[in-house]
Amino acid sequence: MRRSAFIGGAAALAAAVPLATRAQTIPGTTYVQQLNLAVSLPLSGTYGPYGRQIATGIRAAWDENNTSAAPLERVFAVREFDDEGALAIAMSNIDVATADPSVVATIGNFNADVIVGALPQYASVGMPLIVPATTSDSVTQQNYRNVFRLPPGDSVAGGLFAEAV
Description:
The two termini are 25 Å apart. The protein is an alpha/beta fold. It has helices at 3-15, 48-68, 87-99, 112-125, 154-164; strands at residues 34-41, 75-82, 103-108, 129-131, 147-149. The protein is 44% helix and 17% strand. The chain is globular, with a radius of gyration of 16 Å.
């Protein structure tokens, strides 16, 4: 299984949990509820190719879910934000994403320094953050309850490697 497909599938699953209750349809209407996932990754620059791979995997997972969903169920979409690997731009992306009530979570950031710098803002606005690639223990040692890291941390991976050796 390709890593981008796995990350996209995990993101689709994470966004489908009760966090999705923030975006509601109008009672008595037959409008389909659209839930958005914000993707804040470097889509240009040095890390652009890696960020685009993750974004492609996320879009593929959403598309697969949308084609197999029954009529009048939720429809999923992705809002992409290019953070260029910079903390200031990432924090601006958080503001824009939280202004949209249909955004249920963010998959974001590539660099541990950017993630750790933005964690207080993610926590203050109550935005769930799914970390797709960073293994730095500092991301989850902050004890924020809204941070979900897909790869294992350095301390866990190091222990697993040591056991294998």
